[in-house]
Amino acid sequence: MKDSVRGFFEQDTQVKKQFYNRDPLKPVGYNSNFDLYRAPATNWRDTFRCHMAPNPAKPEDMPEVFRDILIEYSKQVMKLGKLLFELLSEALGLKPSYLNDIDCSLGFLLGGHYYPSCPQPELTMGASKHADNVFLTVLLQDHIGGLQVLHQNKWIDVPPMPGALVVNIGDLLQAILLGLQLLSNDRFKSVEHRVLANRVGPRVSVPCFFTTGMLPLERLYGPIKELISEDNPPKYRETTVREYTAHFNDKGLDGTSALTQFKL
User: pLDDT digits over 96-112, tens only?
Assistant: First the structure.
């Protein structure tokens, strides 16, 4: 999968540009900085995305260079995601199917990030500080490194491990990246993270996002009612995933939390 993503980005520009767009509703797309006109600074990376569930892109619309591996890898990560949601449900004291039953695993978006070698890494970031605007993120990273998470106000390296995946909770559990924050009413914390630019490169990573943010679904998400009590009142208002995603995209990676907009 990593080799295939690298292969896509290292194709001739004339081949890649047929996939270039800035419309997140399109099933397949490729660009640099989704928030180019909104964020205070640009990041040192290009990104490919492909919607794989519940309405997958047509195979003929996917890049030929990695069409087959993209489809197969997505199938395997979707299986893993459903299992992770079962385990998280049990950890919350709920029935195993709870999070899957409320569509946390319904939507699946596969991404591919390409971070070229940077001649002046001290002047930019590979990706600015943010938490994912999804239910859950399953990340495959290569050997280069650069991923950091914010823990107790300190940036901690997440070194690559061969054969390992990094799982993040996203802002949404209320709708999730191992983020599960809105739904779990802060019992699970979404992970603020960033990626450093590097003189060594390219760095390749493959984030898989469980989100229904691009679907016109009216299901409201909010703190799980079974977890609410007089001693544990709700911290966030209910919202649709699409409303939350639209707010995140409009705000861009400006270093602030998108959750603030939804706090009670």
Answer: 998 999 889 999 999 99
Residue 38: which of 263, 190, 248 has the closest Cα? Answer: 248
Distance CA 115, CA 134 (A): 22
Per-residue pLDDT tens digits for 188-202:
777 889 999 999 989
Q: CATH homologous superfamily of domain 2-262?
A: B-lactam Antibiotic, Isopenicillin N Synthase; Chain (2.60.120.330)
Q: Phi and psi at residue 73, in whole multiples of 5°?
A: -60, -40
Alpha carbon distances (Å) from 249 to 76, 187, 216, 242: 28, 25, 16, 10
User: How far apart are the C-alpha atoms of 191 and 42, rounded to whole Å?
Assistant: 21
44, 197 Cβ separation under 8 angstroms:
yes
Query: pTM to 2 decimals?
Result: 0.82
Q: Please name which of 208, 204, 177 lies closest in space to residue 192, comparing C-alpha atoms.
A: 177
User: Domain extents for the chain?
Assistant: 2-262
Residues facing 108 on adjacent strands: 53, 210
Q: 86 vs 10, 11, 109, 260, CA distance in Å?
A: 38, 39, 20, 28
